[in-house]
Amino acid sequence: MQPSSPSTGPVTLREVAPILVPGLLVIIGAFVVSRCGLSPSLVLFLDNLHWTVAYALGAGLAWWGLKRAPADAQATRRWFALGLTAYAFGQVVWDVQIAVNWNPFPGPSDLFYSSLGPACLLGLWSSLRVHLSKEQLRTALLDACTLAVAVLVLTLSLYLPKQGDTGPLALAVLVSYPVTLLGALCFGVILILSLRATVSRSWVVFMLALLAQGIVWMHWNSLTLDDALQDGTWFNFSFSVATVALGLGAMWWRPQRSTEPGWDRVCEWLLRVLPVLSVVIAAASLFVLQLLPPVSGAMQLLIGLGVAGVIALAMARQSLLLAERDRLLVAEQQVRENESRFRVMFDSNLQGVFFTNPGGGISQANDAFLRMTGFSRADLEAGRVSWKAMTPPEHAARDEQAIRELAATGVSQPWEKEYFRKDGSRIPVIVGAAYVEGGQDEAMAFALDITALKQAERMRDHSLSLMRAALESTADGILVVNQEGKIETFNGLFARMWRLPEDVLASRDDARAMQCVLDQLSKPQAFTAKVAYLYAHAREESFDRVEFKDGRVFERYSRPQVIGGQVVGRVWSFRDITERQSLEVQLRQSQKMEAIGQLSGGIAHDFNNLLTAIIGHLGLLRGNPQVTPLIAESLGEISAAANRAANLTSQLLAFSRRQVISISALDLNEVVTNLSKMLRRVLGEQVSVQLDFAPEPLSFQGDAGMMEQVLVNLAVNARDAMPEGGTLRIATRREIRQPPATERTAPAVPGEFVRLSVSDTGTGIPPEIRSRIFEPFFTTKGVGKGTGLGLATVFGIMQQHHGWIEVESEVGRGTTFHLYLPLMARQPARIAGEEPGQPVQPARGRGELILLVEDEPAVQQIVMKALDRYGYRVVPAANGPEALKVWAERRADIALLLTDLIMPEGMSGLQLARQLTEQNPQLRVVYSSGYSAEIAGKEMRMTAGVNYLAKPYELEQLFRTVRLALDRKQSRSPF
Q1: pTM of the full predicted structure?
Q2: Of the four, 67, 246, 582, 788, which is 20 to 30 A from 492 by CA?
């Protein structure tokens, strides 16, 4: 047992001395004075005085001991204190009875006197219940009853012969004093023997005090029955001494188990002979009856029944001893069987199991441990196996901690370490230990070989590393959550894509992470509804898009994570498709514009054929002398309308990149300067024009007319954006930059470009329509105020010139268009006859035969008539195959091929010209088309007015081009 602290430890004599010594002095003084021959009444008073002081002192000591009693002794000491208190109160009642000269027997004081024995009996019984098991308590109760009945029988045999005239009630009261006290003594003896309690002052003093009280009361009763009781005797003094001793014993009472094997054997032997001793005591009572005066037959029968009861209890106790022996035999058999089972388990255990001591030695070990460590059974028996010697130095501190855990609790927590094998190699193990039977000398330990586990952990770590590398290298943001929606893992791209704060990532706070996500979304309710739906339908996959407030767009794919047929979580992948979606929009816009361009180009081509016929017939009519002035005026109006129609088709062709383009070396500063006067007239007085030219020439290759059209279209749009007037600023600069990668027609590498900037101070372009301003037929102007082809035409011309446009605009503050064109490094060389300044004088034909290939009948007819009237012979063909037939018949006569570029029947004008010039290299060729000359590609250079006629054309232009082609020297192949 652990020692108590001073505040709760046992009461010492030093502590009780202040009340014990004065009390004893009073007791001794009263007794001494009573022996001095005083009057009987005074002697009686002195006897009562030391009795009263002694009983009160005994009760006080008992209550003092209860106040400091440990938990296992509180109930017992409480009964002792109550009994001694009743005993003392009985003495007070006796003093009152003496004072009033009223002394009946039995009287009130006798009831209180007789409560001491039962109280002590109950106290000892409660101690038995606290310290013994149920089986032990049953045996102890039988032993105590056997001994108590034997004592009762002996007591009766002593008192009955002296009964005399004493009635049964008075005799019962007299007998109850010593019987209950000696019964309590019997219970105390059984308690001590059953507990194998240490021989200590606490129970020795108490047991001797009980014995003294019982003997004193027996003698007092005997004197009372013999009518020989006197006051002021040593016998009376013994009452006081025995009561004080009983109080001291009650104050200290606390039995403690002994660890001495010898005392355990003595207690076991005494318990075995106790039934026989009880029978001997009971038999002695019969012998006493024979020696003392005879008693009535009823009394003899009572004594006989008591002896028989003792014998019956003794026999019952012996049967319990036999049953206990049988149980011990069975227990020993079970122990042997358990040892056998343990040996089998010990030897066959796959774990290494061994017995060791704090010194490090190993006394026993199973085969698994020896195989694990490489030692042999001979090494073990020779004492060459030590767990301390097998432990690497870096693990020694953890082993010392385990030893401390064993000392404190008897069991150590398993820990991981390594052992040296016999060959010096290391083996990873998990070790645990526990003391055997609570002892401190030997411990049983186990060692589990975790080599395979370590290899599996390395493989797992490797796999996790590869998985993490795969997660971090993927182009998608990955998030893995469990079935409850808690975050399991994610890659860095996911955190960057969703812009999650570092503290949220570190804390894995799912609620905060979700809130961060929802704060960024344009439609958070749809997002949460989708997530809730997928968790409600755990096995469904999902693919959709997530839109952000800042314009970002993610593709979101989700699929369940299934293990063993059970859905344990969900994997989400996110891909940022903002740029791709932008490219898709641009692609759709480009495809739409390409489709519209093809449509408008086709319409312009057919319209140009019609205009060619109209303009041709007008040319024939204007040369007719029979035309009256009225008709001439009408013809002029028709010609003007045809020219306006030609301008409209020119815009359509510019948008569709099928416009006739005449490439030459241009200076951007000169183009702007030449057009500036006309621009001021177009813009009006309310708009001022500011010109800001680069200091050096800005040369580029382009069509001057198209560039002027670009400037006019932008200037007109700027004027319409400034209805109250404003400023139009035109600036030119030279710039080195990288073209936007989204422009398909832009050069692939950075370089030098000329920049034309057109700025206004108008209303600006709202952001929601800025992406549509280059769409054909899209306009924000009122009905009848715009066709929607102005900026579309600019866009088409810039693409034809391999340039691009950038727009800057702010609502209410104006718009700036930046146009970029490749800077020309040097002037291109021109071949003879291509100089734009050389006029070709029209001349009549000399009867040359021209092969006219034209699929449009109206154009074919007017060209034939015009050429025929102008002195040429013409042979027509509607398509390529038909022209080949004509060529086969009149090859030697044909001097010039005038062919449309785009024709039916699967043969273009280029293919026809290639076949014919291969047969006759001297053949002249003039091409005609409602499309741009660029459709010929890079295989042939076409120049308007030299070898190309753009529809619609005037008859004078036809005559000049044909004549120039026939008169020009054939210096090189047209291909």
Answers
A1: 0.39
A2: 582
